[in-house]
């Protein structure tokens, strides 16, 4: 576990950043050792992911990562901390605020969301998904198709800035624009008495861009398998672009920012 009062944060996306199923190993044990060493020096280890909390815990077990994170930011927004007997609980009021904001977002922007749904169902081969708990999303038939859909969504967002979304490949989930991996990271930092100056963030996909932002983390990185747009973004903001994939790239990134052994 990290020090009782963390002095800095290590925030990692999970799929494609910490783990890469097509790599050998999927998760390099040296990265685990580096994270543990940095925890002894005051780091709080955070997994910041689009996965749900149960999916994140399942992924850790599936890939043999038997270190418990200090915090998990799940669904690109919800902040959780370990509770008694390893039960994970909300950390602060943020999650409740996010849920209420999403409910207002869906209610207040129904006309725009209906127009977007009509466009998707009438002009594309994509699927518009609506869950029983108010979740709304789109699955594109290709990334190019979703590019065009996102461009259409963005025309609505110029008029209604609350309209936001998280995108990963051909998958998109709508959200209130004020709640993202980036804003959740800043809220976690605030709760810990820290600032963006004390935050390291790493990710490989489009839904990571919100936390790969100096407003939320002054130390940013992407692995060698990061999307070209993510690599360009990180370079433009003075971050570190690794040459190796996923966990091996994160070994490079931690070595760059914090020193220590290189692979």
Which fold name fills CATH's third level, the topology of the largest domain? Rossmann fold
Distance between the termini: 24 Å
CATH homologous superfamily placement of the largest domain: HAD superfamily/HAD-like
Name of the top-level CATH class of the largest domain: Alpha Beta
Number of strands: 12
CATH architecture of the largest domain: 3-Layer(aba) Sandwich
Q: Output the structural class.
A: alpha/beta
The proportion of residues forming helix, as a percent range, comes to 25-40%
| Average of pLDDT | 93
> Which spans have pLDDT < 50 for at least 5 consecutive residues?
none
Summarize the structure.
By secondary structure, the chain is an alpha/beta fold. It has eight helices and twelve strands.
Helix-strand layout with pairing:
Blueprint: E1 8-12, H1 29-40, E2 43-48, H2 53-62, E3 71-74, E4 78-82, E5 88-90, H3 94-108, H4 110-123, E6 127-130, E7 136-139, H5 143-157, E8 163-168, E9 171-176, H6 181-191, E10 199-202, E11 219-222, H7 228-236, E12 240-241, H8 246-258
Parallel strand pairs: 1-2, 1-10, 2-3, 10-11, 11-12
Antiparallel strand pairs: 3-4, 4-5, 6-7, 7-9, 8-9
What would you note in describing this structure?
Strands 5-4-3-2-1-10-11-12 form an 8-stranded mixed beta sheet, with helices on both faces. The chain has a 4-stranded antiparallel beta sheet with strand order 6-7-9-8. The chain is built from 8 helices and 12 strands. The chain folds into 2 domains: 148 residues, 3-Layer(aba) Sandwich (Rossmann fold); 82 residues, Alpha-Beta Plaits (2-Layer Sandwich), CATH 3.30.70. Helix 2 links the parallel strand 2 and strand 3. Helix content is 38%, strand content 20%. The protein is globular and about 55 Å long. The two termini are 24 Å apart. The model has no long low-confidence stretch (mean pLDDT 93). With 263 residues, it is α/β, with parallel strands linked by helices.
């Amino acid at each position: 576990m990290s020090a009782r009062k963390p002095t800095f944060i290590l925030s990692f996306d999970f799929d494609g950043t910490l783990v890469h199923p097509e790599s050998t190993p999927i998760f390099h044990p040296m990265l685990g050792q580096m994270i543990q060493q940095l925890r002894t020096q005051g780091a709080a280890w955070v997994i910041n992911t689009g996965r749900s909390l149960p999916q994140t815990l399942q992924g850790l077990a599936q890939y043999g990562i038997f270190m418990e994170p200090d915090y998990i930011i799940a669904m690109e927004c919800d902040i959780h901390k370990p509770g008694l007997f390893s039960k994970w609980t909300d950390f602060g009021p943020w999650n409740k605020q996010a849920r209420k904001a999403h409910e207002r977002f869906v209610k207040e922007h129904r006309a725009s969301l209906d127009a977007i749904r009509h466009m998707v169902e009438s002009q594309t081969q994509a699927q518009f998904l609506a869950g029983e708990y108010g979740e709304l999303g789109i699955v594109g038939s290709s990334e190019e198709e979703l590019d065009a859909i996102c461009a259409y969504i963005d025309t609505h967002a110029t008029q209604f800035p609350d309209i936001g979304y998280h995108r990963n490949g051909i998958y998109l989930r709508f959200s209130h624009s004020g709640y993202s991996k980036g804003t959740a990271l800043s809220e976690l930092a605030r709760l810990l008495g820290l600032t963006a100056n004390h935050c390291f963030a790493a990710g490989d996909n489009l839904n990571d861009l919100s936390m790969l932002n100096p407003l939320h983390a002054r130390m940013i990185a992407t692995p060698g398998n990061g999307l070209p747009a993510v690599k360009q973004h990180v370079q433009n903001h003075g971050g570190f672009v690794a040459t190796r994939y996923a966990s091996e790239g994160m070994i490079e990134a931690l070595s760059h920012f914090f020193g220590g052994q290189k692979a």
